[in-house]
Amino acid sequence: MGSKTVILVTGATGIAGAEVCAQLATKPSVEVRATLHSPEKRQFLPDSVTVVPFDTDDPATVDAAFDGVDKLFLLTPGGPPGPPATQVIMDAAKRHSVSAVVKLSSIDPNGQPQAPTDLWALEAEAMVRDTGIPFTFLRPPWFNQNFTRGYFAPMVMQNMLTLPFGEGLTGWIDTRDIAAVAATALTEDGHEGKTYTLTGPAAISMTEIATILSEVTGRTIGFQHLTDEQWIGAMLAMGRTEVDAHATLALIAKTRDGHLTQVTDDFERLVGRKPRTFEEFARDHAGLLTALANTPPPEMPPPGA
Fold first, then answer.
1. Residue 304: pLDDT over 70
2. Looking at the domain assignment, is residue 181 inside a domain?
3. Which of the residue ranges 3-17, 168-182, 243-257, 260-274 would you say has the lowest mean pLDDT?
4. What is the pLDDT of residues 64-121, one digit of tens each?
5. CB-CB contact of 211 with 282 (8 Å)
6. Domains identified in the chain, total number
7. Residues 158 and 248 in one domain
8. What is the DSSP string of the chain?
């Protein structure tokens, strides 16, 4: 029996990276190595995954993490720190002769106005290309798991989704489906140089999401559209920076203004089944969503505060 393929996963404890680790860990031919910043986040990873300390500001931890690594799943922050972190990681990948990288990027707005997050993602993609290492880019829209562990979970606790989405539509996707494609690209041939746009099976609105969450949790979860000014005010009141508040608004506005309505068959072609619907996601996580919906929310400023 040959040795296992060692795959390093960065961003490993986030809502996408943790699922990539979980799916790779089921493959007998793979040894999963996960980067870890905060020890308390070890709980999000399978016991079989090896964790390594990792800080892109500490070159020694980066080189140690790459020792013996064959392939890389690359997930870096979506804000301004993303491109610098990507450069550090890709320089190390090249030094250590990594043979392939799968990068989780951001959905292409098809020539429509680009948010800062798009520009940071494209800059990071260029850094990957420039190394000459064979790559695969995954470009999804919003993650369903934002409602269980991510950005919107506190709003589920409030029983009110207060966001400037309007009635914009997008193909919300389950991170389990993103991870399935990542695992395929990292363990099978034929994905080098490819870019896959991964979406759910339908473009849906925040109103539809609120309805599904209400049905699954047994609570009335509403949706309140915020103006741009209300959103910025609420983010600043929560301690977000101006850059973060405006970048997030620009990302949401792509959906609100109808620039991210595309639904692709990339997932189905690669995996052989349709991606999960938002309703399937909600029912699979009904216990957690119900617990959130019945938990007193953290103190948050009122919309427009």
1. no
2. no
3. 243-257
4. 999 999 999 999 988 888 999 999 999 999 999 999 999 999 887 555 557 888 888 9
5. no
6. 2
7. yes
8. -PPPEEEEESSTTSTTHHHHHHHHTT-TTEEEEEEES-GGGGGGS-TTSEEEE--TT-HHHHHHHHTT--EEEE---SSTTHHHHHHHHHHHHHHTT--EEEEE-----TTSPPPHHHHHHHHHHHHHHHHT--EEEEE---BGGGGTTSTTHHHHHHTEEEETTTT--B--B-HHHHHHHHHHHHHSSS-TTEEEE---SS-B-HHHHHHHHHHHHSS--EEEEPPHHHHHHHHHHTT--HHHHHHHHHHHHHHHTTS-----SHHHHHHSSPPPPHHHHHHHTHHHHHHHHTSPPPP-PPTT-
Whether 190 is covered by a domain: the verdict is no
- Whether residue 173 is contained in a domain is answered as no
Q: Tokens for 281?
A: 């996601």
**Domain enclosing residue 227, as ranges:** 146-168+201-263+270-293
**Secondary structure of 192-213 as H, E, C letters:** CCEEEECCCCCCECHHHHHHHH
220 and 288 part of one domain: yes
**pLDDT higher than 50, residue 305:** no
Which carries the bigger pLDDT value, residue 111 or residue 125?
A: 125
